[in-house]
Design a protein that fits this description.
- This protein is α/β, with parallel strands linked by helices and 286 residues long.
- The chain has one domain: Alpha-Beta Barrel (TIM Barrel), CATH 3.20.20.
- Helices cover 39% and strands 15% of the residues.
- The protein contains 12 helices and 10 strands.
- Helix 5 packs parallel to helix 6.
- The radius of gyration is 17 Å and the shape is globular.
Length: 286
């Protein structure tokens, strides 16, 4: 691939980030990060950039990940200062996304505002099921309202939860119907559904068809394994609302990009999937 490539779904995987994960969570990550995976192996930020260079990745959106309520087993929250440091060190290669902890309340809303206005973060990111919530839970609406005010997109995990261990069980609360209420209440909020919505792919496509403010990230799962409806969506009427993500470090860039090449996307579709939509949606200065 020679065109610009923007990965909209990237997580830190260095020693500090890995140490924040609980000991029971690491083998879980090894299990769910398939078929392409770095698993629980630590990858320095320098190595992360090196892998991006080798794969021709122009830039990536780096998440200050927040999964799980503070103080509970399995909680993993990345200090946004770490992400900020990476965006400064590799200016133009990394752009920050602020992770959302709905239990942080208005302090969390203020933190989101601070990192967007003062530090140039370009969006927000939330995984509601890690907090025992559906995306349309009332406790998330103050964050949605702030995103709308700041005119930034928010990535929302849509799809199943594979987390089930003796210490942490999270129900699969991310079905796409949960986006309906949000879209009706805030029709101008830019919602970015991650993980392709699996296993509710067709439901997510339907939601995006119904609401023009719902975008879909093609990440986590190989498109070839997800069936025809998603590919048809990418190639036709979803062309302006699709975004590329590798969910790094869940996947290796070489394998994910090889799969994209095998989809036989037209010269009209591929640039929009791989970069153009992301640049426009997140207003990236590239």
């Amino acid at each position: 691939m020679s065109q610009m490539i923007i990965d909209v779904s990237v997580h830190l995987s260095d020693k500090a980030a890995k140490s924040a994960q609980s000991t029971w969570e690491r083998p879980l990550l090894n299990r769910i990060h398939t078929p392409h995976t770095h698993g629980s192996s630590a990858i320095s930020i320098e190595e992360q950039i090196s892998q991006m260079d080798s794969a021709g990745i122009t830039a990536a959106l780096l998440v200050a990940t927040k999964v799980g309520r503070v103080g509970l087993p399995g909680t993993w929250q990345v200090d946004p200062e770490t992400v900020l440091s990476a965006t400064k060190k590799y200016k133009g290669r990394f752009f920050g996304l602020m992770g959302i902890d709905p239990f942080s309340g208005m302090n969390g809303v203020k933190e989101l505002e601070k990192y967007v206005l003062d530090h140039g973060f370009v969006g927000a990111h939330v995984v509601p099921h890690w907090f025992g919530m559906r995306p349309d839970d009332a406790r998330l609406f103050p964050f949605y309202a702030k995103c709308l005010e700041l005119d930034i997109p928010i990535q929302i995990h849509i799809g199943s939860s594979l987390v089930h261990t003796p210490f942490q069980q999270t129900q699969s609360l991310g079905d796409p119907t949960s986006l309906d209420e949000i879209a009706y209440t805030m029709p101008f909020l830019k919602m970015v559904a991650t993980n392709s919505g699996w296993p509710w792919i067709e439901e997510l496509i339907s939601a995006s068809n119904k609401h023009e403010n719902i975008y879909v990230v093609v990440d986590k799962h190989p498109v070839s394994a997800l069936g025809g409806p998603l590919l048809n969506f990418i190639k036709s009427w979803g062309i302006n609302r699709i975004l590329f993500g590798a969910d790094f470090p869940s996947a290796t860039y070489q394998e994910v990009l090889a799969e994209i090449d095998q989809l036989d996307l037209s010269e009209k579709v591929k640039p929009r999937l791989m970069a153009q939509n992301a640049v426009e949606l997140y207003k990236l200065p590239l």
